Each structure stands twice: as C-alpha cells, then as structure tokens.
Amino acid sequence: MKALRYSLLLPLIHLAISVPVIYHEEATFWRYAPRIQAAEDFEKTDPPPIVHSGPMIAWNPCYEYRASDADRFIFFAEFPAGILIPPHGASDCNPTVLRPILQKLQNWMRLKTRIVLLDCLLIIGIASQWWLVGRWLDHLRERRKHTMRWIIPVATITTFGIIVAAAAFGSSRGLEFGAIIVSLIAFLAWVTLLLMFAVAAVQSVLRLSRKSRPQSN
User: Fold this and answer.
1) H-helix or E-strand containing 14?
2) Given pLDDT bands bounded at 50, 70 and 90, which one contains residue 1?
3) How far apart are CA 177 and CA 66, in angstroms?
4) Which of 11-15, 140-144, 183-187 has the lowest mean pLDDT?
5) Could you state, in order of their start, the residue ranges of all structural domains in the chain?
C-alpha cells in the first residue's frame, strides 16, 4: 500500500482547521460591513478637513483594537501566511506586512469584495505553505533520510493549532489565556522549523559549491 504523501495530508489538515476559524471570524465581522462601507463612502465624498493651526490630538481608530483568538490562530499557528493576511484582512487594524497595500484596496473595491478576495488569498497561502512543507518531508522520506526531527515541529504546530482553533469558538476568559500560551508555543515551533529550513538551505549551497570547485591534481 502506497504511503500517504505529506504534501497532500498537511494542506488538507490545515485547511480543515483554518477554514472554519476564518468563516466564524468573518461571520461575526460581516454584520458590521454595511456600517463600515457607509463610513468609507463618506470619507471618499467628504471634502478634505480644514487645516488647524493650533495643537491637535491625532485620532487613532485602532486604539481599542484587540486581537481575537482567530487573529492569534492565523498569525501564530499559520505564521508565514498569517503575517501577510490575517482574518478580515480588509480591517486597517490588523498588523500585517502587506497592510499598506491592503489599505489601498478600498479605493478600488467594495468592503465585502475585499473580504472575500483577501480570505481567498489567505486560504491559498495556508495551503501553499503546507504543501511546500509536505513536499520537503516527502523528499526526505524518498531519500530514506531521518524525518523525525522535522515531523516534531510540524506535529507541534498542527496539534497546538487545533487547540487554538477550538478556542476561537469559545468565550471563556481562562480559555483565552490558555489559547495565548498555546499559540506562542506554536509560533516557537514555526520559528524552529524555519531555522531548520534555513540551515538545510545553507548546507545545500555549501554542498553545491564544493561540487562546482575544480579538483586539484
């Protein structure tokens, strides 16, 4: 019987974990979409404010922003994709690498369209990153190399990701605190895994450089 490939198994597992969390988060956010869209439309049509000559206090719309369990799950348990686009990525308050670009989308797209587009990109990113991890594990297994040291961080991320995802559907204070601790452990496992990939890449480059050197007589 042919062994199940990691490149198929890992994306399916993480999509099964992340898609319900994203849907649950967007279902909560969706009800406020008409109000937010009306505010965006008003800002586009409203005349620019009059420059004030005296001291002014800057208004920060994200002052009371608080990350949800879904935000933590996507950012920490699905770290590489989550640092680019978190749930309800149309929100200006989510800290992402692509935030400056995402903020400009409101000039061209309606809010609900942006939400659907960005969530699709997030789901594609999650599936892609785990497909790459799975391909690497399949490569090691085909070459009969030790895979256990790679499987340990992968299993840690997956297991603790399931716990954080489950916490996203709860409302208990104690559950939220536990989810924060667990999500940090998943994040540390991601850091470990990425460092392992970096070391493997450096070793491959050094090996190729040695092979390319001309042999001395």
Assistant:
1) helix 6-30
2) very low
3) 14
4) 140-144
5) 6-42+67-205
